[in-house]
Amino acid sequence: MPLHKTLEQPIPPRPATVTAAGAHAAAFTESHDVVAVPLRHPWRWVLAAVLVLAFAWLATSLWNNPNVDHATIREFMFSPQIIRGAGLTILLTIISMVLSTILGIVLALMRLSDNPVLNAMAWIYVWVFRGTPLLVQIVFWGYLGLLYKQISLGIPFTDFHIFAVDTNTLIPAFVAGLIALTTNEAAYSAEIVRAGMMSVDPGQKEAAYSLGMTPLFTLIKVELPQAMRVIIPPMGNETISMLKNTALLSLIAVLEMYTVAEHISAQNLRQVELLVVVSCWYLALTSILSIPQYYLERHYGRGSRTLGPTPIGRVVSLFHRVMSTR
Amino acid sequence: MSETLAPRRRDHERPAGIPLVRASNVRKNYGPIEVLKGITLDVHAGEVMCLLGPSGSGKSTFLRCINHLETIDGGRISFNGELIGYVQRKDRIYEMNRREVAHQRRGIGMVFQRFNLFPNMTALENITVAPMGIGKIPKQVAIAAARDLLDRVGLSAQANKHPAQLSGGQQQRVAIARALAMEPKLMLFDEPTSALDPELVGDVLDVMQRLAASGMTMIVVTHEIGFARGVADRVVFMDGGVVVESGPPREVLEKPQNPRTQAFLESVM
Lengths: 326, 269
Ligand SMILES: Nc1ncnc2c1ncn2[C@@H]1O[C@H](COP(=O)(O)OP(=O)(O)O)[C@@H](O)[C@H]1O
Ligand SMILES: [Mg+2]
What we know:
Chain A is mainly alpha-helical.
């Protein structure tokens, strides 16, 4: 039977049970202002209360511990030495993240290229730097002077040198630390960037090429901006790891925050107090780092969803609303 | 669909001189599978050619060879008298480097089944990015031209929207405008309406029909027989990597000679 004929058939009467339910539903729709109550969650409040109490107890027991000297914490929390150390920590984090991201992009492109030599080089790089401990790499760069007493520019396999410098002069501890953090981080960034690039629809590259765009232009204008959406959240994590990993540079005596704290506590023997001081600083700095991440995610998320106001935007509009009701 | 399309302005006169696109004996393999088994076709300036054929017959592959999104394994394709993607020295042809290919592709626009708009850019930015970045057109000029193009595809109001905020039909019309912004001599369409909801197909076909009427040279892979009948100068039927039948729409669509063409037309109409 053709479809339109089927539809012309009379609709069979409903069974009696359905009619009873229908009457019930009708009673509901008659009263107009029924309030919908969302599901209540009383146990959440109980759990939250228990956790708050437990945390308060832990914090006061720590704070009231007779072995913790509050005066020392107050003395060093904002001392110039610690602040200078924190500055160096931030500087190391920023420079090594920027450099490792650039190196990571280059490595990712090498891995994605169809040139087998570049591909193998990038693979080996990631294999080495991701496969050995960061701690070992830091010590290695720090002790490079033991391996090569001098670094010289000249013709390999001959005695001809244009110049030669003492390794420890050319690579001071700060630079060695920077190299160690950057080269190690680049191995991780490379994999993150590669995953981001692979997440971009291949049709995007084809559309770009069909418009006459060159491969480099396509990369910069089309592929990387879209890859960024996938790249930025894990890179935020990497930045936070990086900030904390700078503490490992105390092994090669780079005067970042943790090294400074160690030096101070070696003199006044207040290890716990100085650990409290630097922990507060690390927590504060990692918290601040999540702000640029939020805005970068928004920037590169354009077009994928409609954006609400930023937290600052919300405060501003709240302010306007409060002012206008006066 | 064909009722909504105005009759074609141009008559079917075949211009003399060299064709705009000349494909001779084009062959393409994917691994051991031969996908194109020697395609020979000419497309003259101003001509609209519709490419029909069952799925997997090599239509997309052939289209992608024309702007060198795919390399070819035999034969040759020339555009405007120049080999595409290759240079000939003595009795061999060598693949061009990627910058030179990019330069050649500027003369050929392409519209994809899945639109492939850049999701991180607005409709307007999608249209201006290539002329500004590649064509070195000043920003103000490129924007004015893009607004004009958006107007011509009926989307002036959507200039600042991102693709995700547009319907499929609107996205495809932006994609057409984007391709036209490079002022191509040839437009390739790969099933431009196959991913659209039925009620949105008409708007896109309408834009294509007006483009054809303006004299643009077009190669259109489509299953819209009404469009082929109303707009095409020539219909080419492909199957299994070869051209099975080709000629004016009246002949190929009304009185197909080959049984494969007949079977295909019965299945889509
Ligand atoms: N990148 C590819 N790799 C391997 N096989 C492919 C690829 N692209 C297309 N093919 C094969 O080539 C044949 C022709 O494909 P296509 O040109 O897309 O056909 P059509 O567009 O006519 O449907 C199909 O059998 C398809 O599976
Ligand atoms: Mg196809």
